[in-house]
Amino acid sequence: MQDIEIGDLIRYRLLEIGRVARRILDKVKGTRLKSPYEEAIKEILEKILTSLSRILEELSKGDEITKLEWDSLSIMVDFIRTQSDYLFGVIEDILSQEAAAELYYFLDFYVDLLVNKKIVENSPMIVIIKGYEPKTYLLSSLPSPKNSLLSPNESLWVIEVPVKVEGNIFEWPILLHELAHIIEHKLRIVDSEFGRSYTIEELERGNINAIDCYHCKEYLCDYIALLLCGPVWLFMLYDLYLTPTYRLPKTHPEWSRRVAVLKERISDFLNNIKKANNNIDNSKSSSTKVIEQLTKLINNIEQIELQAVLRKPLQLDNILNNVKNKLVDLSFKLSLDDLLNCIHNLAGFKPYISKRTYIIREKEEELKDEDIDVNVIVNAGYLIYRLNLFDKEIQEYFRHDEYKMKSEFMYLVTECVRSARIIMLAKQALLS
Amino acid sequence: MEPHINDLEYKRQEMIEFEPVYVQQFNSYMVVKGLLTYSLCGIDLHSKGMTHENSILIQSAIKWLNEFIEKQNEDYFSMLAKAKKQANLREDLLDLLRKVLSILEDKKQRTRDEYNRIYNDLKNLIDQLTSLNREVEEKILARYRNRGSYKV
What we know:
The complex is a heterodimer of chains A (432) and B (152). Chain A is mainly alpha-helical. Helix content of chain A is 66%, strand content 4%. With 152 residues, chain B is mostly helical. Chain B has one domain. Helices cover 68% and strands 1% of the residues of chain B. Chain B contains six helices and one strand; from the N terminus they run E-H-H-H-H-H-H. Strand 2 of chain A pairs parallel with strand 1 (17-18) of chain B, so a sheet runs across the interface.
């Protein structure tokens, strides 16, 4: 048994951790979050901190601490310290480094879509922060004396995004891939196809089924992102493939294979563009040029298929086809006309809202897919930015300063997405 | 080079990883270490005459041991396996944990030798587990532990 003085010291240390927990609890109560689920997120954080400080208080008041051997005591305090350092660190990051509200306007649109189409029952609680190491993780339900700090039904997802993603709307579709992971994690689509889940240990040992299972999750999340936001995800993935990635974790398949798998899934849309390209007259209209440029991009993407040497997991087609059947309602169908109209407007720095959005049909009960402007704007904006499709007058106005023009364009598109989202919410409110 | 690649800025692409391997390892490590820590404290207190009726730590150990034995999560087992380094691992580990559980649920005192043997087994496991996961713990916590404030 340890000396009474050491017991007092440990007791003081536990009380100190409890005091920090209460200080952060006050901070949580007083800090305004940008997430639309602010109240629910705060409730989760408050619950974690309250349970932790209550447990520490109970432990420090009881006489168990004085009875423990020095070894057991130091192991216990070390464990509590590690847990609280982690929890306090993540919570402090959430409070002080939350990403811009515009990201929520964007992401929330897709979360609503998933809930409205009953793909998930409730909106997953997601908080987006500016990250040190870009990653998505569950603020997990760590064990503490008595109970877990959170019940199994309560979960808070944290997405850490690099600042360059936060500041560039054309990188935001990455968030949809992460959202797809969160949905997949909840529904366990891939694990059920494989008949079991595989441990990280098995993946690290090079178990081929484990590798296939983890890779299928990536392919699936690419596909869900594609269903949610349209071809822009394929174009983005192609650009990611062209840009060096120095560290490709074992959990991820090669970029070229991801591009190739996705390309197969959207071949109808791509072929429509190629057909339109074959049928264009010799007029020099802006649409003609856009179609020509797009066709070039598609031809380049098709070349990737030849480079994608990595084998495709056997279960993949089954998984993607099942998801396609389940999520067919969700699938965003981008019409070429809408895309070209939107490109026409945005390339001249004019805002875009489709005419349909203004009209509220009588007896309309819910928003129809075709009313969705956010997706059209994101797809068109990305292509203009990526393929430099700006109007001549605009290029002259900016004296061909590409960086200035693109930077202004990003603000314009972000504003368009925000406006489209607000108009949609207003329309929903009017209809309800 | 394809013409449109010329337009692409040469920059390093950062991936947003979903539950990166080290994060999953850290979570499993915390769960397993919690289980072993409460078990160790439980055995220590039980040897000094405390029971689940008057000890929070013994109650916690019983709760987590029951959950662990019932669910038999593969990730947690492989985390423990790394620390144990022994054949017939799964059964050995389950035997140890079941033994701890039966002692803690019972008010009857055991011999000093029995307590010592189990205490040492648990302590060795915790030591191994901690040293094997030191890097992961550092990676996750370094930024929180070394956070400073700005001064001008």
